[in-house]
Amino acid sequence: MDTPIDALGTCTRLAALLGRADHLLARAEDGRPTEFGLDRRLAPDMFSLAEQVVVLADSLIGSAALLTGHSASTVREAAWVFNRGAAEGLGELPVTLAAARHRLLAAHSAVIDMARDSPRPASQRADAEVVVARPGHVRRFRLAAFVHDYALPNAYFHLTMIHALLRQAGVVIGKADYEGPRPYTLD
């Protein structure tokens, strides 16, 4: 039998990822003009820094909504977890670092609030079905696959892109800024 998925623990991880992204943008704010280039891209066909922030924020809200039992009728992002298509589907993009950080912090609060007010139990069956739906498109997952093979890898991808774009812009950040506090002690 599959090990149950700790949905609320996963939400804690999602919130931590949003915190890491905010930390990276805070480092970018140090000594930078307000109109820092959020339109920068690693390649012409990739999302800009602003789009990476929006996708990370909204997708983690949507993932938390699906994990905690909040529906698309109450949480808009639940219907738009990932792969919304063209950049036009992202809505209004932040134009300043402060606005981008605000978007991440709002997502962090939303994820924490949904976990606290979850109508579902903290531990859920790994083979439970998760449905990600948007108009004209439905994806069905087993909960374990949704968490481990879809939601978390996508979140880490967008966090990595934010880190890479900031490094490309000359922001002095490193691996420790990406990873956060050490999960171990040194002897």
Automatic annotation (TrEMBL):
InterPro entries, per database record: DinB/YfiT-like, DUF1993
Gene source species: Roseateles terrae
Xref: SUPFAM superfamilies: DinB/YfiT-like putative metalloenzymes (SSF109854)
Pfam family, one: DUF1993
Coiled coil: none
Superkingdom field: Bacteria
Protein name per Swiss-Prot or TrEMBL: DUF1993 domain-containing protein
